[in-house]
Amino acid sequence: MLPPMLLIQTTTPTRDEALRLARGLVEQHLVACAQLSDIESVYLWDGKLQQEHECRLLLKTSADKWSEVERFIRERHSYDLPAIFAVPVTQASEAYAAWVSDVTHEATGLAPHGGTTAR
């Protein structure tokens, strides 16, 4: 049986920062895929209405990687209080879920669903 998947989201003030986070997370096999999109955010900060251009980072990973991903982002993020949250994936194609599991568990050489990650 495949481990559960998560979609983790955060935002950054610049595309460059989001890309640095994305590349680091993928290179360390903490996430299988990272998607970046430019967004406009409206929020309250210190009691004042703010509107900012940001970059959204959507990360696809195995649920057992949450703590490592959250720590990685928090330690490298430029915001004092970055929004970092996860949504469980309740349905996914088996082949895609297996790929996410394989990529995020490559360092061990054995995928949790029993297959090897050697290519």
Written description of the protein model:
The protein has 119 residues and is α+β, with helices and mostly antiparallel strands. The protein has a single domain (5-105), classed as Alpha-Beta Plaits. Helices cover 29% and strands 35% of the residues. The protein has 3 helices and 4 strands. The chain has helices at 15-27, 66-76, 94-104, and strands at 5-12, 33-45, 48-62, 84-89. Strand 2 and strand 3 (48-62) form a beta hairpin. The longest helix is centred in the N-terminal third of the chain and has 13 residues, at 15-27. The radius of gyration is 16 Å and the shape is elongated.
**CATH level 1 class label:** Alpha Beta
Following the backbone from N to C, one meets helices and strands in this order, namely EHEEHEH
Largest sheet: 4 strands, antiparallel
Q: Determine the fraction of residues in helical runs and give it as a percent range.
A: 25-40%
**Beta-strand residue percentage:** 35-45%
Spans of at least 5 consecutive residues with low confidence: 109-119
Strand pairing plus helix content: what structural class?
alpha+beta
Q: Span between N and C termini?
A: 21 Å
Principal-axis shape equals elongated
Summarize model confidence as the mean pLDDT: 91
Strand order of the largest sheet: 2-3-1-4
What descriptive keywords fit this protein?
single chain; alpha+beta; Alpha-Beta Plaits; four-stranded antiparallel beta sheet; 4 strands; disordered C terminus
